[in-house]
Amino acid sequence: MLDDSSSDDTSLIIKSFAQAGVRFVAGGSLPSGWLGKNHAYQTLIEESSGDYILFLDVDTVISTTSISQLVEQLLTNEHSMVSVLPRREDSHHASALFGTMRYYWELLLSSRTTPPAASALWMVSRAALAETSAGLPSYSMSVRPERHLARQLQRKKQYCYLVGNRKLGISYEKRLKSQYETALRLYYPMSGRHLLLWLVATVFIVLLILPLGMVIFSGHQNSLLWYWAASLCVVTTLTFAALMITSYGSVTWLLRVGLGPWLLIQELVLLTLSHVLYRLDKVTWKGRPVAAQPVRHDALRVDE
Predict the structure, then answer these.
(1) What's the rounded Cα separation, in Å, for the pair 103 and 244?
(2) SS3 (DSSP) at 27
(3) Domain assignment of residue 1, yes or no
(4) Is the sign of the CA dihedral 162, 167, 172, 176 positive or negative?
(5) Would you say residue 188 lies in a domain?
(6) Is the torsion defined by CA of 268, 100, 120, 107 positive or negative?
(7) Domain count of the chain?
(8) Cα 210 off chain centre by
(9) CA distance 107 to 117
(10) Are strands 2-3 and 25-26 parallel, antiparallel or unpaired?
(11) Please, are residues 162 and 84 in contact by the beta-carbon 8 Å criterion?
């Protein structure tokens, strides 16, 4: 485990597990041209020796069989990389009920050439990482390096994305504040970085909210218009419910589906704030200010 220059007792906690086989790696100063998390990734890759490399966020929890299941998935399907959308086992908490819809957008906006990818947990073979035309050093300033690698390996049909279930045993718990911070860091790059694409994303969310407003508040007598609005509401609800049923650990997913209109308004606010903060160079990651590069998707520069 790597301690990325933390100021608390992280290093002592890691060292206390030495007898269990946990090796402590001290992080150094951040080199120019790297984001902190990406440099930690690269350092751990260089320190590791196995055939497969597993990365998981601090908020992600795994069971005793999760890793073996992922390795079996890779070997059985002859894949080189897998990432997992984790479940929320604490779905009754406010941080789960009112959390952002980032994973929903990840699935909804994915395609065959732009697959979804989750930073919560991803595993890649060392051989594939070495063979890719641009490994992690080429994405040293990206807020989503795992997505770039996934897109490369998808072209070779060597990547898969899994939506977590109870058997896989991969879950996460993330505070609401941390979810907002992540959304502010990711939504602007996800929406394309350009004003026009941001506007398209904004209009798309508004159009998801509008039909529900029409159904609830409109007194319009045109039955065709009413059926159109109601149909859009049903389609939106069903797609959102499909993700919630799979990724939430109890029937409280129904509450989150019921909160859908509020969540969409929340997403609209976060998308707008992300755009504004990036334009003002006010976005931070792990306490380090970052700003969007004008020429590369998802790329950032460290504001030293």
Answers:
(1) 10
(2) coil
(3) no
(4) positive
(5) yes
(6) negative
(7) 1
(8) 27
(9) 9
(10) parallel
(11) yes
Give the other-Cβ count within 10 Å of 251's Cβ: 10
- The candidate with the shortest Cα–Cα distance to 88, out of 251, 258, 240, is 251
CB 85 within 8 A of CB 247: yes
Please state whether beta strands 25-26 and 121-125 pair in parallel, antiparallel, or not at all (unpaired): unpaired
Q: Report residue 294's pLDDT band, with 50, 70 and 90 as the boundaries.
A: very low
Q: Count CB atoms within 10 A of the CB of residue 204.
A: 15
Per-residue pLDDT, 298: 43
Residue 10 lies in a domain: no
**Residue at 19 is within a domain:** no
Helix (H) or strand (E) holding 216: helix 195-217
Q: Which domain holds residue 74?
A: 31-283
266: pLDDT strictly greater than 80: yes
Residue holding tokens 């929320």? 88
What average pLDDT does the segment 26-33 reach? 74
Per the prediction, the chain carries an average pLDDT of: 81
Return the amino acid letter for 49: S
Size of the chain, expressed as the number of residues it contains: 304
- Dist. CA 175–CA 179, nearest whole Å: 6
For the entire predicted model, the pTM comes to: 0.81
Helix (H, G, I), strand (E, B) or coil at 158: coil
Tell me how far apart the alpha carbons of residues 174 and 96 are, in angstroms, rounded to a whole number. 8
Give the pLDDT confidence of 105-124 residue by residue, as tens digits: 888 888 888 899 988 999 99
